[in-house]
Amino acid sequence: MFKHGTHIFDAVSHVVDEIEQIQNGCKIFHAGIGDYVAVKIFIVQFIADMPQRNVTCGCKKPTADRPCCHCLQEKSRLKTGEIAELRNVEQTRSFFEQCLKKGSKNMVEEYTKSKGIAPLLEYKSLPHKKVPVAYKPNPFWRLFKLYGFDIHVDSVIDLFHIEFLGLLVDHTEFLFKYVFDEKEKKKIFAEARKINISGNTLPPMEHYKYWNGDNWITWMMVSPYVLFPFMNTSSKLKHYKCWICHLDYLVMLLKPSLSLVEIKIAKEKCLEWRRMMIDLYPQEDFNFPNFHCILHLFPQMERLGVPILYWTRPFEHKHKTFRGINATGNFKNVEVWSSNKGFL
User: Fold this and answer.
1) CB proximity list for 340: less than 8 A, separation 6 or greater
2) Are strands 121-126 and 26-30 parallel, antiparallel or unpaired?
3) How far apart are CA 270 and CA 294, in angstroms?
4) For position 343, what pLDDT does the model report?
5) pTM for this model (two decimals)
């Protein structure tokens, strides 16, 4: 049997079960017309941060040779402006099947790392080795067969996590690490304390790594005014231009609507920012997932619309409920229990 403990597949399987059951419609009373109506429910998109998206798709962590859950780009090429062959359900299923043909656990681990997948496998013990004999299918695969929902294609890139809890944080850290000295940093922190937008202030900037996404959105809006007096020199102006280039495309992505031409312009600004970052910070290795995954956002926008229509900002603060129960409560397996009760 599978001995990996509670897995995300165990939690979502109950959700998928219910979706399958109501494909023919369930009767719900409609107060407006005073009668029962048939209602069908479909999953259109799966929205989550990158770690959760990887787990739900059955993909490996960023240490894999191919860490992107959307395409098969190699880790060594994440900093290029290229997107590789896109992942899909049928392809991942074939990768899982190939795992069963490997002759040992070590061979399986090498193969899964090379493909960037994380199957939940059952092993049989033989003399001196273990061999895979079965894998647990991803419950979402059933929805692909049912009506074409693809957990890879339809798991969206979340602007809130990838930028406001990701790339914008990284860029700020690079400025404080490579551009400003300690005296300048203290002055910038002092200026940040003075910020007041309609009664809203920033937490102490000395602890910016612990800011939430809303704090970073505020910082995005006020940072040009705070930083410019400290970057208006020949040696630092190029860093300021890079920062403004970053904010330029971010502001575009926050608009309530964009034309295809505007999406193309935003993408060009993003690519220019990436090139500037690689040139300005050669000490850093930009082969990390967020720096690559932002590229997937632009074709996604052409298909689904602007990112604020499907970002996680409205739900981010809901994490406190589960975190509090998991950390201090007596309940076990809260997420599985909740999905059994239909609370998710």
Assistant:
1) 14
2) unpaired
3) 8
4) 44
5) 0.85
